[in-house]
């Protein structure tokens, strides 16, 4: 139906006759002729109809925005002064000879350019219109290209694309499962996978050696953050490898994608132990574009009377730390109040600060409500340790270490964004040496990654002191976002049972939930490990989008619904009966 | 952890030291030395341990089948007379210097070679062992390569890989949906997609022009045939194309896959109208490897007294037809009885036959219980029309056309398989010109493909005589299997509503179920079409497997369960309460 895409018609085709199809992007009447900008996925081309070609002129005159047309015409150079260097096709136009209306279009629910004030709800309801916008076209095409690069890279490295089931058994990843009632097994349910974790490990036990999959995963979580009920992972697993091998492969993949699609060299990814990341950046996914660090100052504050600082300074689980913000002395009282509110989200009870006006004057050159509690001497020692300069502001956190880290870690990112302090566009690193377990408030322990992660200690050490055991896990972090993560897995049945024990999972529960995994480990499981990347987030970062919804063709809203198809929807009683379930009656009004 | 895969160690490495990992495939004691065959995904290598290397020898002596080991040794040529030309590594062996046991293995639940009498249930329960067998390794690797070829081919043709949702709205494909209760929308349910049909059409409306996806699809059907609850489609859609364009692209893809992976040239695919396929082969997916056709013989039998033939011969909806089987006169009475039973499955009430012994003797040279009913003259006219030769058998079908077609169509395939009558290994074709609708017994009509398929007639003709309307659908058939199918879709809102009307779908139901599609057609939908291939079936055919379960890593059983993970399983009441559902109480025993 066409000889060329609109966007591909250029000056090499001058004097040739071309046929193309697309949407009427703009229609103008000018000096007795009609100009149509016709759009397809490759771009726009300008078509001119003059009244000499009566039939075509009349049709062109009748078209409206978003009509679908097929046009034949002759390519010619644009008259001098009317060329457009910003347009791929800006040196030419097409003199229209024939035009066929392939389909009409009602007035669009929102304009496709200059749409910025259109609400997301209406964009999602008419997603098929929203995606006509060049930004959305570009983002989804970009996504397609990135997955293609990832696949090729992994296939060249010998990874096999193997599909794992979507209808499966409830998994222990922690989040809530989506359930699917079984018709043939009354009272039983499938779960949609939170990840293909156990299946990919079984594929290693089966000897496939290198597996990958671009896999749909599902979590029925509250979508407060930028999350989707279904999301996509680049999922990778390999056998007979160690951390260096698999991290090298993964890093190679991400570097290649950045090189090919953004022409960016991410360089070598440094590695940082978890403990260092927490200490220096208050985060296990530090944004290394930001030239600020969190510095311990407890040493100066243990013996002061001011309990707010002294108590956590003396508490082994406490932390007192400072964040020096270069140039931050200009922050207004109002801004500081806002930051105080901001760190409150993370549990911080306040946000002490010292502005450095004229450091050469000693404490006299500082401005702060807290110096009187800290003491002049201690204050100056802190300023020296921080190497404070005129114009800086120093923020303080003093609380349980967890709260201080989260509060100052988040503050560091927030201030950097507000003051645009980034020293580079991209900064990637690996975070390694994670703890195996986290202690909950009730004293129970949870796996920091998942219970199949191998510890870097012996089974005996694990048993003796689980909370100090480190794991062989690794996270890839880019610009303060976790792009992907994984670990060397446990391949020894005894070690796996040891981890289950540490997590308080009884033998019976182990058997019931993980019997097939324990079986698999018994019959000759190879050493193996892998990782998974969040594809949606990767594409979001690479395209500079503010939400993963911008890089998913048909996303769900925050309440996990599709406003376009009206999913989820009602179903018939027959369907429910077939599935052996019924709706729960609403509780009666309180009696 | 290794320098080479086992299967890659060959005579070019003689005298070099190599390290490899894998499973102990076989262990033999022979003349005081120990032979281990070590297996990884690339193949087997033979390792020899002699008692001089004491430590290694002792470890090698202790290993058992399926232990996981790492071995370092020197490659050497095998002694004359012990080489094995059938093995990639058959010219060499490795003199083992070091061996580490990476993991032990309990005795496998079934032997990994010579397993033929192992039941499928036990193979599926220990799928991670079953997949260690070279056949399964080969099949899944083959599958990975085929999907890779398909992707590359489509991407080179400008198709973008775009993901569509798994959590979606109930679709109208006809089969039963898998449902997913929503937690955030009480009483509402998502459905898992039976295909991405509507989403891919919306992507065309959105202007992506060319879309593909290797997509998981779901149908909650009874798995009597070789079906799976979840299966995989190569799903394709394009805009501004006609049948020839999209069929050319699809055919090119399949031809390339066969050429690259099997070194088979499938040639040009002929096209055959649906009506011809039904008449000549009794099937809309004729197996063209079989040199037999179904031939109408009603013309000779309309006026005879024998009602069994005469009635359908005169009925416009009836059919009387013959299938001549060359060499079939050798079939025993018992075999014929079995075929009679076989066609009974398709509703045939009997299977009349005539054996051709000595055709030169006229009816005297024939053997049949039915000649006396047909009459000598009619019999010989039929023999002449069929060009019957000595040694043939002729089977007859006489009933409603649908029954005759199905019965003789199936018999044709069955006899061809039994007598190995195939004239080629592969035979592909397109079946085209399908009817838009089928009439049900109650007089209502159903879409033969789906209600989004474009008719090849005008809206007015469709309205006037829907049952005679043909569609712009096309099926690709290979060796009697439907590999894929698709159609040019309706892009005109009025036409779409006309088809919905013909199907008896009220305006209100149209709006409720397909409102978003009708909206999309209203806002400038381009002409478009596409198709989908059944990936599982394609791989099954290409690998000569007898079931799609053989080409899926973790398939479900016939009762839609996973015997390995024990899915589906029980869930807690808390989970059900969160989803606003409960289990239906079992009905009390009859009162």
TrEMBL record, chains A, B:
<comment type="function">
    <text>Aspartyl-tRNA synthetase with relaxed tRNA specificity since it is able to aspartylate not only its cognate tRNA(Asp) but also tRNA(Asn). Reaction proceeds in two steps: L-aspartate is first activated by ATP to form Asp-AMP and then transferred to the acceptor end of tRNA(Asp/Asn).</text>
</comment>
<dbReference type="InterPro" id="IPR002312">
    <property type="entry name" value="Asp/Asn-tRNA-synth_IIb"/>
</dbReference>
<dbReference type="InterPro" id="IPR004365">
    <property type="entry name" value="NA-bd_OB_tRNA"/>
</dbReference>
<dbReference type="InterPro" id="IPR004524">
    <property type="entry name" value="Asp-tRNA-ligase_1"/>
</dbReference>
<feature type="binding site">
    <location>
        <position position="482"/>
    </location>
    <ligand>
        <name>ATP</name>
    </ligand>
</feature>
<comment type="subunit">
    <text>Homodimer.</text>
</comment>
<dbReference type="GO" id="GO:0004815">
    <property type="term" value="F:aspartate-tRNA ligase activity"/>
</dbReference>
<dbReference type="GO" id="GO:0003676">
    <property type="term" value="F:nucleic acid binding"/>
</dbReference>
<dbReference type="InterPro" id="IPR045864">
    <property type="entry name" value="aa-tRNA-synth_II/BPL/LPL"/>
</dbReference>
<keyword id="KW-0648">Protein biosynthesis</keyword>
<feature type="site" description="Important for tRNA non-discrimination">
    <location>
        <position position="81"/>
    </location>
</feature>
<feature type="region of interest" description="Aspartate">
    <location>
        <begin position="197"/>
        <end position="200"/>
    </location>
</feature>
<dbReference type="InterPro" id="IPR047089">
    <property type="entry name" value="Asp-tRNA-ligase_1_N"/>
</dbReference>
<keyword id="KW-0030">Aminoacyl-tRNA synthetase</keyword>
<feature type="binding site">
    <location>
        <begin position="219"/>
        <end position="221"/>
    </location>
    <ligand>
        <name>ATP</name>
    </ligand>
</feature>
<dbReference type="GO" id="GO:0006422">
    <property type="term" value="P:aspartyl-tRNA aminoacylation"/>
</dbReference>
<dbReference type="InterPro" id="IPR004364">
    <property type="entry name" value="Aa-tRNA-synt_II"/>
</dbReference>
<dbReference type="Pfam" id="PF00152">
    <property type="entry name" value="tRNA-synt_2"/>
</dbReference>
<dbReference type="InterPro" id="IPR006195">
    <property type="entry name" value="aa-tRNA-synth_II"/>
</dbReference>
<dbReference type="GO" id="GO:0005737">
    <property type="term" value="C:cytoplasm"/>
</dbReference>
<dbReference type="InterPro" id="IPR047090">
    <property type="entry name" value="AspRS_core"/>
</dbReference>
<comment type="similarity">
    <text>Belongs to the class-II aminoacyl-tRNA synthetase family. Type 1 subfamily.</text>
</comment>
<dbReference type="InterPro" id="IPR029351">
    <property type="entry name" value="GAD_dom"/>
</dbReference>
<keyword id="KW-0547">Nucleotide-binding</keyword>
<feature type="binding site">
    <location>
        <position position="173"/>
    </location>
    <ligand>
        <name>L-aspartate</name>
    </ligand>
</feature>
<dbReference type="InterPro" id="IPR004115">
    <property type="entry name" value="GAD-like_sf"/>
</dbReference>
<feature type="binding site">
    <location>
        <position position="228"/>
    </location>
    <ligand>
        <name>ATP</name>
    </ligand>
</feature>
<feature type="binding site">
    <location>
        <position position="219"/>
    </location>
    <ligand>
        <name>L-aspartate</name>
    </ligand>
</feature>
<keyword id="KW-0067">ATP-binding</keyword>
<feature type="site" description="Important for tRNA non-discrimination">
    <location>
        <position position="30"/>
    </location>
</feature>
<keyword id="KW-0963">Cytoplasm</keyword>
<feature type="binding site">
    <location>
        <position position="489"/>
    </location>
    <ligand>
        <name>L-aspartate</name>
    </ligand>
</feature>
<keyword id="KW-0436">Ligase</keyword>
<dbReference type="Pfam" id="PF01336">
    <property type="entry name" value="tRNA_anti-codon"/>
</dbReference>
<feature type="domain" description="Aminoacyl-transfer RNA synthetases class-II family profile">
    <location>
        <begin position="140"/>
        <end position="555"/>
    </location>
</feature>
<feature type="binding site">
    <location>
        <position position="449"/>
    </location>
    <ligand>
        <name>L-aspartate</name>
    </ligand>
</feature>
<feature type="binding site">
    <location>
        <begin position="534"/>
        <end position="537"/>
    </location>
    <ligand>
        <name>ATP</name>
    </ligand>
</feature>
<dbReference type="GO" id="GO:0005524">
    <property type="term" value="F:ATP binding"/>
</dbReference>
<dbReference type="InterPro" id="IPR012340">
    <property type="entry name" value="NA-bd_OB-fold"/>
</dbReference>
<protein>
    <recommendedName>
        <fullName>Aspartate--tRNA(Asp/Asn) ligase</fullName>
        <ecNumber>6.1.1.23</ecNumber>
    </recommendedName>
</protein>
<dbReference type="GO" id="GO:0050560">
    <property type="term" value="F:aspartate-tRNA(Asn) ligase activity"/>
</dbReference>
<dbReference type="Pfam" id="PF02938">
    <property type="entry name" value="GAD"/>
</dbReference>
């Amino acid at each position: 139906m066409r000889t060329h895409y609109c966007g591909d018609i250029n000056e090499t085709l001058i004097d040739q006759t071309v046929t193309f199809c697309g949407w009427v992007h703009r229609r103008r009447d000018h000096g007795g002729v009609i100009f149509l900008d016709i759009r397809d996925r490759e771009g726009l081309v300008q078509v001119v109809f003059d009244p000499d070609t009566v039939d075509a002129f009349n049709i062109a005159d009748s078209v409206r925005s978003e009509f679908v047309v097929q046009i034949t015409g002759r390519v010619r150079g644009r008259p001098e002064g009317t060329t457009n260097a910003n347009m791929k096709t800006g040196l030419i136009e097409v003199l229209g000879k024939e035009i066929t209306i392939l389909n009409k279009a009602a007035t669009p629910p929102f304009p496709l350019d200059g749409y910025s004030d259109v609400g997301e709800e209406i964009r999602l309801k008419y997603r098929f219109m929203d995606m006509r916008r060049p930004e959305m076209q570009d983002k989804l095409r970009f996504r397609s290209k990135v997955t293609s690069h990832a696949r090729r890279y992994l296939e060249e490295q010998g990874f096999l694309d193997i599909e794992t089931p979507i209808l499966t058994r409830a998994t222990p990843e922690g989040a809530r499962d989506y359930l699917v009632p079984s018709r043939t097994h009354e009272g039983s349910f499938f779960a949609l996978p939170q990840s293909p974790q156990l299946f990919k490990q079984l594929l290693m036990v089966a000897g496939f050696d290198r597996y990958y999959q671009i896999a749909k995963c599902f979590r029925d979580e509250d979508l407060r953050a930028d999350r989707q009920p279904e999301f996509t992972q680049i999922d990778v697993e390999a056998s007979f490898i160690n951390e260096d091998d698999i991290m090298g492969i993964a890093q190679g993949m991400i570097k290649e994608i950045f090189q090919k699609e953004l022409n960016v060299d991410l360089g070598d990814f440094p590695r940082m132990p978890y403990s260092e990341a927490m200490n220096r950046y208050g985060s296990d996914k530090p944004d290394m574009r930001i030239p600020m660090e969190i510095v311990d100052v407890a040493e100066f504050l243990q013996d002061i009377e001011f309990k707010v600082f002294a108590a956590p300074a003396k508490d082994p689980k406490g932390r007192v730390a400072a964040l020096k913000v270069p140039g931050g002395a200009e922050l207004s009282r109002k801004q500081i109040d806002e930051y105080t509110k901001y760190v409150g989200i993370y549990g911080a009870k306040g946000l002490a600060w010292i502005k450095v006006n004229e450091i050469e004057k000693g404490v006299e050159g500082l401005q702060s409500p807290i110096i009187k509690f800290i003491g002049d001497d201690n204050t100056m020692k802190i300023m020296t340790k921080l190497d404070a300069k005129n114009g800086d502001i120093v923020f303080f956190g003093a609380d349980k270490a967890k709260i201080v880290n989260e509060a100052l870690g988040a503050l560091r990112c927030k201030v950097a964004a507000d003051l645009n302090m980034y020293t580079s566009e991209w900064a990637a690193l690996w975070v390694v040496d994670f703890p195996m377990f986290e202690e909950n408030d009730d004293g129970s322990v949870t796996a920091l990654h998942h219970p199949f992660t191998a510890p870097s200690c012996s089974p005996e050490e694990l048993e003796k002191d689980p909370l100090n055991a480190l794991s062989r896990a690794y996270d890839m972090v880019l610009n303060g976002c976790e792009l992907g993560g994984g670990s060397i897995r446990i391949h020894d049945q005894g070690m796996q049972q040891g981890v289950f024990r540490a997590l308080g999972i009884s033998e019976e529960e182990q058997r019931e939930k993980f019997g097939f995994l324990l079986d698999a480990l018994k019959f000759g499981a190879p050493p193996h490990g892998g990782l998974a990347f969040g594809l949606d987030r990767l594409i979001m970062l690479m395209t500079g989008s503010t939400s993963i919804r911008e890089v998913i063709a048909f996303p769900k809203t925050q309440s996990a619904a599709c406003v376009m198809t009206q999913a989820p929807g009602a179903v018939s009683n027959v369907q429910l009966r077939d599935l052996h379930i019924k709706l729960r009656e609403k509780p009666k009004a309180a009696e």
